[in-house]
Amino acid sequence: MRQGYSMLGFVVIVVLYAVIGLMAAAGVILIARKVLSPKAEQIFYAMFLSTIAAFYLAFAAYFGAATAWRLETAVVVVFVAIGLLGARLPFALIVGYSLHGLWDLLHEFQAHGVYSAFEPGQLTAIPLAYGVCCAAIDLCLAAYFCARHSEWIAAWKAVPQ
Length: 161
Hints:
- By secondary structure, the chain is an all-alpha fold.
- It contains five helices and no strands.
- Helix 3 (69-86) packs antiparallel against helix 4.
């Protein structure tokens, strides 16, 4: 855990950011579902996966993490590929957002010395509780995609009139 934080303070911040993430996911779901057709909604979430993955490149640039560029770029490429598949295959979005939530948590754990799957410097730094907030969003969206899966498939099979 980073020095200077009490355990209670750390837990409060983590819970606060998790709740903010859940509320953000609920807002995105409500707006996207109201404004977009099922096909457009699926495509929106597919493109959004690519965008959120690229945030780690922005953090690498901002924090000057030169040693993190190779791994972070490779992971962004993987998420972009999953996002492209997800534009037509709902299951890819479920997998992609779940994996991205785990990627967020991995960054959070490494940032606080809880768990490190990579050598120091291979992952970029992130703001405090960013990984928790984003993991909450990602995992909530993945659960929502499970619920929307059959509607999205039906929308692609429907014949326009």
